[in-house]
Design brief:
Chain lengths: 258, 258
């Protein structure tokens, strides 16, 4: 299924009104079933649906590694992905409706508040130069061609310091990251000691997805939030924001930017 | 609580690296309790939290009108809003984990697939001229000053054809719309026969929020998705996208654009 379709529109400009067609990004409601049980419906772009399902399960902490995934059956037309896990997964472990603060009235630590516990510090010694960062972001922007056509898509990539290794796009920035991490999981590509680049902002949820994959550096052409920055600082992740042209802001763990 | 904070950063440019501060948008995990029961945690900007809670409950179809809301108690520091409803609300009515397709393997109509049923066609006779649209969008862009400071916030507004009536911003485009609709609900401002303007894209979820408030026209400076366009067409809502400078695309119900 193409990620872009064409729809009739009326275009109004200073010159007047014309009937024409416009490229519009597709949005698919995709329901993920885990061991036959309905888990969640994501609104997504209809590409790389196996990677999306695997990446969602992994980056939300529902499955821990590749070995826990048996089969993935994609029915794109029906809007369904059926994943069989190789072990029983307790319904409690599914952080679905995501009540992040699970006990009313009790204050938690920042990491607990964000629904993220038991994660050890990321201590990767990988470094990236400012010039390498700029080159990666330029290549990343060039690859985001669906965005160019429709203005409606986020992109994400896993990179080393020299090149893009995995690239994905989606109408949701969360989904784009999940597609990248899911592809890595399914293909056995290590994400630790590597770099995630995203076209979207870096709020806490994106940061935590990267943390589950043990990614030490995350680069955005846009802005992080304060909670994203605080979590990155605690977890040992380097956050680079507003990486555009020959400029960038380093928010945390600047020792990895040489 | 301010929506923006300042954090230490290292800024790297062609001239070198300096230590400075940057404005970073705040992100608050806010848990909504309804009649004492934990409902959901939203990641949001810490402003207009009463409107956000009311708007979320309304635009998700959990409460139907102003009369169903009793008290709203906001504890911003604790990240909690407690809403008392004037009637018992059945847990089934809460579309929380949002399994959009509720029965595996059965195909549904488009509206059912999007979790939206029983909505009648919006037949508002309101119209807007291209010139009025451009003037509204210009004013809307001018008001989005938090975005200008941090690059991390979406804005939404309720307008008539001449001016902005309610304006809100948030790190989430869904939340920005909920804040606007919640403010309208709490203040008794009618949203039907009026116009929603959003800085974000128009996927199905945004379209359905506007539909619950019976808004006949939605304007974005960005792009809709195909599912957003199809739902708008079915529900009788005019979608105007890419409204920038003196240009715009009308995707549905162009009869309202004069």
């Amino acid at each position: 299924m193409d990620s872009v379709t064409r729809l009739p529109i009326q275009r109004i400009t200073a010159e007047g009104r014309i009937k024409t067609e416009d490229a519009v990004v597709r949005e698919l409601p995709l329901t993920i079933f885990l061991n036959g049980k309905e888990l969640i419906t994501l609104l997504c772009s209809p590409s790389a649906l196996d990677a999306l399902a695997a990446g969602y399960l992994f980056s939300e902490g529902i499955i821990k590694n590749r070995d826990e995934i048996g089969e993935i059956a994609v029915d794109a037309g029906g809007g369904m992905v059926r994943v069989s896990a190789t072990r029983d997964i307790e319904p409690d472990a599914w952080s679905l409706s995501k009540p992040i603060i699970t006990s009313a009235g009790k204050k938690r630590s920042l990491l607990n508040t964000a629904g993220f516990t038991g994660q050890s510090l990321i201590e990767s010694g990988v470094t990236i130069s400012a010039g390498e960062t700029m080159a990666l972001v330029n290549e990343f922007q060039r690859r985001s061609d669906v965005f160019q056509a429709t203005g409606g898509v986020h992109s994400a990539a896993l990179c080393d310091t020299r090149e893009i290794i995995v690239f994905a796009d989606d109408i949701g920035r969360h989904n784009a990251i999940d597609k990248v991490l899911g592809h890595c999981l399914l293909q056995g590509i290590a994400a630790d000691d590597r770099i995630v680049v995203t076209s979207g902002r870096i709020p806490s949820e994106i940061l935590l997805k990267a943390a589950r994959a043990r990614v030490p550096i995350i680069i955005s052409v846009s802005a992080p939030t304060d909670l994203g920055v605080k979590l990155a600082d605690s977890l040992g992740i380097t956050v680079i924001g507003f990486a555009r042209g020959d400029r960038m802001n380093v928010y945390t763990h600047a020792e990895r930017v040489t």
